[in-house]
Predict the structure of TMM27 protein.
Amino acid sequence: YAWDANEEYLFKAMVAFAMRRYSSKSTTQISNVLLCNVTDRVSFWFVVTDSSKNVTTVPGSEVEAAIRMNRNRINSAFLLSDKTLQFLKITSTLSPPVEPSTPAWLIVFGVVLCLIVAGIVFLVFSGIQKHKKKNKESTERENLEEKVEVTLENGIPCEALDLKAGHVNGVFTADDERFTSL
């Protein structure tokens, strides 16, 4: 940052402006702002004098209040911020952090709740689909059983085959173990 006589003049003018706005008096002039111990790193201290009174300097509390009240104008004049233009003994006027309109916990809660509701809806619909599929398969089996006709052989009706359990031939079933196995 190039600090030269023009920048010093602008700083003095801004401090005089701040003092005039604070005290509502037009007695503070640019010549009333004195810069002392200016270094190459743009570090200095300044004093504001009051020529209308017998007192040579304005109390520090008034200067601090005037700077605090007009700090944003001073920062804007130098295109700086509270982080780059530092006044010792004067707290910065950083704006408070912006808080979102909805708290973060509410957003997380909403997302988790939506996932739970979506899971429940998925389980209900998949259960309904399985139930419909099962009912459809059972009705198809019943339809197949109904389609089996009773056949007549030599005028004698034959038994329909039991498709579910199969057909048991009574000849090969052993009521008791009368015969020895080979």
Observations:
- The first helix runs from residue 5 to 23.
- The chain has a mean pLDDT of 77.
